[in-house]
Amino acid sequence: MQWTVILTTCSFSLILMVLPAFRGMPAYLYFFQPEWLALALSYWVLAAPERVGLITAFSLGFVADLATGSHFGEHGLLYLMLVLFFAATYSQVRVLPIWQQAIIFAFAMLIGLILQYLFLSLTSGSLANAMVFLKAFASALMWPWVFLLLRMIRRRFR
Amino acid sequence: MNTLFTRTTPSPSLAITLILTCALVLWIDSASDYFRGVRQAASAWIEPVIVAAHLPGRLSAVVLDAARTFSDKGQRVATLEAENFELRALGSRMAGLAAENARLRALLGSTSQLESDTLIAEVISLEQRLDRHRLILDKGERDGVRVGQAVIDSTGLLGQVTQVMPGLSKVTLVTDPSHAVPLLNERTGQQVIAEGTGDRHQLSVRFISVSADIRVGDSLLTSGLGRRFPRGYPVGEVANIEMIPGESFQSVDMSISSKPHAIDHVLLLSALEPVLQDDAVVEVEELEELIEAAGSP
């Protein structure tokens, strides 16, 4: 039952990630696109760490790469880092107020993005665009709403 | 001992294995074409996600279009009729020119260009990030779209199909930083290569030697080399030329004639069969023999 809820919410966040831009959207706005799947995944690690773990992050990473057309492994690195972070700290993070969770989420995203940035720069042979770190803050701003919505869904379908 | 809070920490060895797997796959995927088959096979499976993401936009477009058609139908029909008349007149002249062109090509002994089949597709979204310039079209494998087809509109070349799903296809624009297109200077006949830079309106023309005859305003067409794009479609004109002291090439930028952000429909040209240039190989071999014969006493 819970798996159905987890996969459904993850599918919805995947759809949000490939939402088309409006015509003539400036290129820099893409850096403010929240990583919806990272948000959903982090929530589920906090809420159900016994179910959502590294394997889920790894698989969802590849699905996200397919959907957005990025290189295989790009999203996996970010999601694995997030899951590692929250799986180690979920008992402390769970009890914090939502705004503090958002700050911690931004921090975890930054770690993941740094790992992604390093490997992207290494494999492409030139430095990747450092603007990607803005994604950490854009995503953290969405954390309260995602958290409240997913908690409501989880309680409804327990 | 049973504790109140059971801890489920992920195993470090699994974490390291998975991270290294991701890194390895990322390295292989960015350096080679090895996973193209996997991507192609899985794209049918991921298509519903992309269709779902485009649903709100497409529905609103249909509603807006219906409202607009309803309000000024009469005027639109009049303008379209006038345009149609003009195009028919042009078309009849084109037929004559095409026949003449075929005769001339036959005289010159070069292969005549085949009349290509075309397919009209609607643009359902445009993505212009710094590192990626792509269109998504509403026609896919079911409609006969193939990877490698050239995509044009009335103003010139837009790009090529790089991924095909059952009902959708993705087009990489000429402005994409990973894209390059072989061109021909219409005025001088010089062959050049233009690369995308991530700029939305400009391409960078590469390897123009300092002494080359190129001017601002020169119009550049597809040259047909490489047989990916058919010959003769306009791409843009030279916008900026800069000599950098000490460099062996000029820095040349061209502006593209098409406006990806303003188009709704595109034309897909049928993919050309890649042809091995047997004649060229033979010519080179003959030349080498001649050179050898001349060199030996």
Walk me through the structure.
The complex is a heterodimer of chains A (158) and B (297). Chain A is mostly helical. Chain A has one domain. Chain A is built from six helices and no strands. Chain A is globular and about 45 Å long. Chain B has 297 residues and is α+β, with helices and mostly antiparallel strands. Helices cover 37% and strands 27% of the residues of chain B. Chain B has four helices and twelve strands. In chain B, the strands form two sheets. Chain B has a six-stranded antiparallel β-barrel with strand order 1-2-5-4-3-12. Chain B has a six-stranded antiparallel barrel with strand order 6-7-8-11-10-9. In chain B, strand 6 (180-185) and strand 7 (191-196) form a beta hairpin. Chain B starts with 11 loop residues before the first helix and ends with a helix. The chains are: A mainly alpha (158), B alpha+beta (297). Chains A and B meet through helix 1, helix 3, helix 4 and helix 5 of A and helix 1, helix 2 and strand 1 of B.
What is the fourth-level CATH superfamily of the largest domain in chain B?
Rod shape-determining protein MreC, domain 1
Class of secondary structure makeup of chain A: mainly alpha
> Any idea how many domains of chain B?
2
Number of strands of chain B: 12
What are the low-pLDDT stretches of chain A, counting only 5+ consecutive residues below 50?
A: none
Q: For the residues shown, what is the average pLDDT of chain A?
A: 92
Percentage of residues in helical conformation of chain A: over 70%
CATH architecture of the largest domain in chain B: Beta Barrel
Strands of the largest sheet of chain B, in order across it?
1-2-5-4-3-12
Distance between the termini of chain A: 8 Å
- The span between the termini of chain B is 96 Å
Low-confidence stretches of chain B: none
Total number of distinct structural domains of chain A: 1
CATH structural class of the largest domain in chain B: Mainly Beta
Strand/helix succession of chain B: HHHEEEEEEEEEEEEH
Shape of chain A: globular
Number of strands of chain A: 0
Shape field of chain B: globular
Number of helical regions of chain B: 4
